[in-house]
Amino acid sequence: MQDPLKNIVSLCKRRGFIYPGSEIYGGFANTYSYGPYGAELKKNIKDLWWKFFVQFKNDVVGIDGPILLHPLAWKASGHVDSFNDALTDCRQCKSRFRVDQLIEAQLNKDIEGISLSEMTEILKDDKVKCPKCGQKDFTEARHFNLMFQTEMSKTDKGHNIAYLRPETAQAIFLEYKNIIDTMRVKIPFGIAQIGKAFRNEITPGNFVFRVIEFEQMEIEYFIEEKDWKASFESWLNEMKKWCDLIGLNKNKLHDKEHDKEKLSHYSKRTVDITYDFPFGTNELYGIAYRTDFDLKQHQEFSKTNLEYFDNVLNKRFIPHVIEPTFGVERTILALLCDAYTEELLENNETRTVLKFSKHIAPVKIAVFPLMKKEDLKKMSLDIFDQLKKLYKVEYDEAGAIGRRYRRQDELGTPYCITVDFDSLNDNSVTIRERDSMQQKRIKIDELESFFQKEFKI
Ligand code: GAP
Fold first, then answer.
1. CA–CA dist 34, 392 (Å, integer)
2. What is the pLDDT of residues 172-213, one digit of tens each?
3. Is the pTM of this model over 0.70?
4. Most buried among 11, 206, 334, 398, using CB within 10 Å?
5. pLDDT band at residue 113, thresholds of 50, 70 and 90?
6. How far is the CA of 272 from the centre of ligand 1 (A)?
7. Which listed CATH number (3.30.40.230, 3.30.479.30, 3.40.50.970, 2.40.50.140) goes with 84-145?
């Protein structure tokens, strides 16, 4: 059987969605570049997310914080001390592995929470083989901090190491006080952010599933402690509405409750929304009840009072936090996996289609003159000029019409418009719908209202 991920990776390269990073230098592992259609897809996802979670909500505001935060913020958040994975190296072939993944894959044993020396004992037991060279000769398990470090030219009060943020969340916590002081927000309220995060992952891979530079879309929703359970459920529900909006296949989505003893250092409850990727069921998104951990830590380390004053109840308190978090790259990968379809047509040709939802498709409409005749071209270009002010539209006059349809199918374009000789007389065009391939005639001056209805959220 063909590996479905392989087909997706190949289409992404061939059609300008995603290229391997630094390819002309022989590549730079686990980095990727988004080509013209990938960049459109990514932008559509982020814009729609912002619309759904910021613009449509009365109680969420957005920010755009820095990637580099004061180094003490990462000490306060626990990342300097606890954002580690345990790793081991194969002494024979020098490959590096995450110990938990190695043991889980070969011994089917979940080792979350055990000590480094216990891990080393298991590795010495002679049951685990190096997946690369087959030897059983590993170094002792040791911690590896996942934060990327960079050096500052100017020392800021003795700190010359800065960290590239491993999550966008902390930039939100650092602005919580400014938002309270300047925005007239009242608890409960949320702060949202979309931005880059960096992790020095030991075993990245599976295309863009686990990369070292990625984007997160996160909300920190500030509440009173007593409301955490209801708020958690309501945000989990909002996350599912989002999955629906972007057209993810419900049957491939699942909730995975984290066991109490495996929760991150800041969380009292975490649920992952997992997705059935071709390489297994894995985390797509997550929601965590971060309690008042982060704000308390930042209050202590920054020596700044971060209490909220509730003037109705006349009391001060540190708010608790519910955090829905979404990875942009994993969204793209799940959407590609859902959308990728190969169909056998009546003429025995195979048609490859990306069945993206209309809202996130990189190109919304393609306009073709049936043939390269001046009057057909002019009419097509007029339609293209009119529609491109409203949507991402492509104009294509090259090659047989069937091939032009196939090309747009592979890009996931929901509608193609063809201008033919009848169009010159009846001012109508043919619209072809991507999934059904059905065609219908429509008047040119009704195109705008037709698409307005089709692309309405
Ligand atoms: N602020 C909470 C947080 O960062 P996380 O589960 O570590 O939680 C949130 O990450 C989301 O970011 C994940 O659900 C996933 O979508 C995405 N993500 C995490 N690590 C990633 C990586 N190495 N590559 C791509 N996406 C990643």
1. 17
2. 999 999 999 999 999 999 999 999 999 999 887 899 999 999
3. yes
4. 334
5. confident
6. 11
7. 3.30.40.230
- Only one residue has tokens 């958040």, namely 77
Give distance in angstroms: CA of 404 to centre of ligand 1: 38
- In this structure, which topology does domain 6-71+166-337 adopt according to CATH? BirA Bifunctional Protein; domain 2 (3.30.930)
Residue-wise burial string across 99-138, b where 16 or more C-beta atoms lie within 10 A, e elsewhere: bbbbbeeeeeeebeebeeeebbebbeeeebebeeeeeeeb
pLDDT band at 84 (very low <50, low <70, confident <90, very high): very high
Band the pLDDT of 1: cuts 50, 70, 90: low
CA-nearest residue, atom 17 of ligand 1: 327
Cα–Cα separations (whole angstroms), residue 332 to 192, 207, 353: 20, 11, 16
- Domain 363-454 has what CATH class? alpha beta
Sorted by where each begins, the domain ranges of the chain are 6-71+166-337, 84-145, 363-454
CA angle (262, 276, 40) in 5-degree steps: 105
pLDDT of res. 203: 80
For residue 135, what are its two tokens? Answer: 């030897």
**What pLDDT does 434 receive?**
98
Q: Which atom of ligand 1 is nearest to the CA of 166?
A: 4
Ligand 1, pocket residues at CB < 6 Å: 167, 169, 199, 201, 210-211, 214, 216, 218, 283, 285-286, 323, 325, 327, 329-330
Give the closest residue (by CA) to ligand 1 atom 19.
327
Amino acid at 133: C
Q: Which atom of ligand 1 is nearest to the CA of 272?
A: 14
Atom in ligand 1 nearest the alpha carbon of residue 199:
23
Closest atom of ligand 1 relative to the 204 alpha carbon: 23
pLDDT at residue 94 is higher than 60: yes
Give residue 261's pLDDT. 79
Q: CB-based burial of residue 349 (10 Å sphere; 0-12 exposed, 13-18 middle, 19+ buried)?
A: exposed
Q: What is the mean pLDDT of the segment spanning 101-120?
A: 88
Kindly give the distance from the C-alpha atom of residue 356 to the centroid of ligand 1, in angstroms, as a whole number: 23
For the chain, give the mean pLDDT.
95
CA of 388 to the centre of ligand 1 (A): 35
